[in-house]
Amino acid sequence: MTTRLYYKDPFLLEFDATIVGGGQHEERFFTVLDRSAFYPTSGGQQHDTGRLNDVEIVDVIESNSGEVWHISGRPVGSVGAAVKGVIDKSRRQRHRQQHTAQHILSQTFVRLFGFNTVSVHLGEEYGAIEFDTKEISAAQLDEAEQFAMQIVFDNLPIEILFIDSSQVADTPLRRAPTRGGEIRVIKIGELDYSACGGTHCATTGEVGIIKIIGTEKLRGRPLVKFFSGVKAFEDYRTRYDVSDRIAQSLTCNVVDLPEKLIKLQEENKAVKQELVRVLKDGLPARAQELAKSATEHNGIRLVCENIGSFDVRLAGQLAGQTAEIVNGVAVLFTEGRLIIAVSEGCSMQASQIAKNLTAQAGLKGGGSAKLAQLGGAESGIIGQYREQLKRILESA
């Protein structure tokens, strides 16, 4: 059985070991060592990566028999060979910060609200904790975040303890372990005692930042998502750069951006309403202009044109007016859509034209007898749509 060096020293990044086993694992290879500092995916925490000699370790898993398997794209070596292991420092640091932040948050929700942790996800993008309650309010999230950050600022010491299962009753564990024998406990000051096999920081100050980023429902319970450490810093840096650039372009302070945005949205809405009014007033003249391009096929006049960027609702009205002027069919392209309209006296139905065009051009949509719409159209092939429409009319 592999001696897990990270159990006692989560800061160990280099070690020497001997290969004691290995073989094929799916399309890759696994290597078993007599001792290893590589953490395998378990307890919600992601695995380490790094190298064994010059071979890249892309995954680390725990086998059914409890062995640590180091997964690589090619064999590391034969049984008995000596290897030097090197852990990816940056990845290990992120994992230590994230796992410690999770312990702090889990205990925070217990202390403040009596919410216990049901499950944990410590992923590449964010950490998440599922709690045994139906709802968590925005005010509670804010209070928890502030409490957790105070724990970080207090820079509490974090210790690794090993106790026998007989000592569990005398240890204030957040959750009692389900197995016997020796139990590894992560102690965060006097805040939290948790049975855990993961890698952690030496002090809460090393976590740096804990930022709750939102919630979602999981099995009817709230899942609280968070950033921590380096990940939280990277997110802050990105958000700062973006908000600062926007504030500079709008010549306002960052804290004034929400108010500025609301004002711009209101102005934009007013401008759009005025533009729609102007466009609507100009529809008859635009329809007359489009009607000049009409061609006749099997006694039915057809207009098929690209009208560029246009309000979709007005495009339907424009197509209808154009169809009435030519007393036939008007098909207008705008914003990736084909708007199909037929006149009152036309023998064709817009829905039937759409159905036939869908079969020929691979578009999707439908409509009524007088007006239909198809999505997925491309401006560069309006000529092809026109030819397909001509064939549809000629075969009617």
Name a few traits of the molecule.
396 residues, alpha+beta, six-stranded antiparallel β-barrel, six-stranded mixed beta sheet, 8 helices, 21 strands
Q: Number of helical segments?
A: 8
Number of strands: 21
Strand-residue fraction? 25-35%
How would you state the average pLDDT, rounded?
93
Query: Which geometry do the CA atoms define?
Result: elongated
The share of residues in helices is 25-40%
Low-confidence stretches: none
Summarize the helix and strand pattern as letters.
EEEEEEEEHEEHEEEEEHHHEEHEEHEEH
Radius of gyration of CA atoms, rounded to a whole number? 33 Å
What structural category arises from helix and sheet content?
alpha+beta
Major sheet strand order:
2-3-7-6-5-8
Biggest β-sheet, characterized?
A: 6 strands, antiparallel, barrel
Task: Report the end-to-end length measured between terminal Cα atoms.
Answer: 79 Å
Word description of this protein:
This protein is elongated. It has helices at residues 89-113, 138-154, 229-249, 257-281, 283-291, 312-326, 350-361, 382-394; strands spanning 3-4, 14-25, 28-33, 35-36, 50-52, 55-62, 68-72, 82-87, 117-122, 127-131, 158-164, 182-188, 192-195, 210-218, 221-228, 295-297, 300-306, 329-334, 337-342, 364-367, 371-375. The chain is an alpha+beta fold and 396 residues long. The longest helix has 25 residues, at 89-113. The protein has 8 helices and 21 strands. The strands form 5 sheets. Strands 2-3-7-6-5-8 form a 6-stranded antiparallel beta barrel. A 6-stranded mixed sheet has the order 16-17-18-19-21-20. A 4-stranded antiparallel sheet has the order 9-10-15-14.
